[in-house]
Write a structure and sequence with these properties.
heterodimer, A: 174 residues, 3 strands, B: 163 residues, 7 helices
């Protein structure tokens, strides 16, 4: 088996276990299913790489496993996670799905009823508190874990560098 | 090692082309333009890798690394192009680490950022949705990526409203 198949098969393991665990838990523990899928895919990756190196060890194969196959697996697992996440949280996809499901279209009022900015805030706060990223204390919200602000800051600087602005609402905010 | 250098080298080249083009002039449709750059560099990548002395399997391996890195970047770029409500909220809360943010402050923050209206505008702008007599309709049949996402979504069943 060519070693380029190892990360592809590992992503397949990731996908299968994520979908099956999601269905097993009937839609709850979403984030856990993502972690589980990634973890089992990674385990499959390590096992396959060890078996491959066991059969034909060379420094070149070891470097390929570490520098080529591992990044391919991580990148494709990230792509899969983003793909799943799109269906879960992307406003654009959800609006599109909602419009597609109605043969007579959707009015602006119906969109506002289904997807108000208030519900957008409520759902996100609920999700972030549940995941421990936000902490609610004495009627105020605090940062629970620093990973999301860090990602936010990186994207903020990338946006400023590439697009010359800090937010897509720069003109709205003024 | 040559597989790694070829894949990463091509990716860095594509990234440089993207940054230069973006600095010269921002494209109208960011994602298709970005995909175009990565795809265009894939074409010379194949013969170049072969000339370098890589076997067919090694060339495919290098291109798989290039495609994986490119897809990763394109996906991440969508969060650079448009604001993520979740990340915007987290940055807003992080600005006040000791006092925190009240629900009222968060609501005013979101009131200044009409995410829903912006996403509808984006769907109209990309011609995926059309507006007719104050109602929104799908423009043509759903594209393949949308059909894939919507098809895969069925596995997950009902999702709470609000995105």
């Amino acid at each position: 088996m060519p070693d380029l198949l190892i990360p592809l098969l590992s992503v397949l393991v990731n996908l299968i276990f994520q979908v099956f665990s999601f269905r097993y838990w009937k839609g709850s523990n979403y984030f856990l299913t993502i972690v589980l899928g990634f973890g089992l895919g990674l385990l499959a990756f390590v096992v396959m790489e060890i078996l491959f190196l066991w059969k034909a060890f060379s420094t070149d194969h070891l470097l390929t496993a570490l520098l080529v196959n591992a990044p391919i697996y991580v990148c494709l697992a990230y792509c899969y996670y983003s793909f799943v996440q799109l269906g879960q949280t992307s406003i654009r996809i959800r609006l599109y799905a909602e419009i597609a499901s109605k043969s007579d279209g959707l009015s602006a009022e119906e969109v506002a009823m289904e997807y108000s900015d208030d519900s957008l805030v409520a759902v996100r706060i609920h999700r972030l508190v549940e995941s421990g990223d936000l902490i609610e204390r004495n009627g105020a919200f605090f940062i629970g874990r620093g990973r999301l602000p860090l990602i936010g800051n990186i994207l903020f600087f990338a946006k400023r560098f590439l697009l010359g602005k800090t937010s897509e609402f720069d003109q709205v905010i003024g | 090692m040559s597989v790694f250098l070829s894949g990463v080298g091509l990716f860095v080249l594509a990234l440089a082309a993207h940054v230069i083009l973006w600095k010269v002039r921002l494209p109208k449709h960011h994602t298709p333009a970005l995909l175009g750059i990565f795809f265009l560099l894939l074409l010379p990548g194949f013969p170049l890798a072969m000339i370098q002395g890589l076997s067919l399997l090694e060339t495919l391996h290098a291109l798989l690394l290039y495609v994986s890195l490119s897809l990763c970047y394109v996906i991440t770029y969508s969060a650079i192009e448009g604001d993520s409500p979740t990340l915007s909220l987290m940055r807003f809360v992080a600005e006040q680490p000791t006092q925190g943010r009240t629900l009222q402050e968060i609501e005013s923050f979101f009131a200044e950022r009409p995410f829903i209206r912006a996403r509808i505008s984006a769907l109209l702008h990309s011609s995926l949705v059309r507006e007719e007599n104050g109602r929104y309709f799908i423009h043509g049949s759903p594209s393949l990526p949308f059909r894939l996402i919507l098809g895969f979504r069925r596995i997950y069943g009902e999702i709470p409203k609000g995105g």
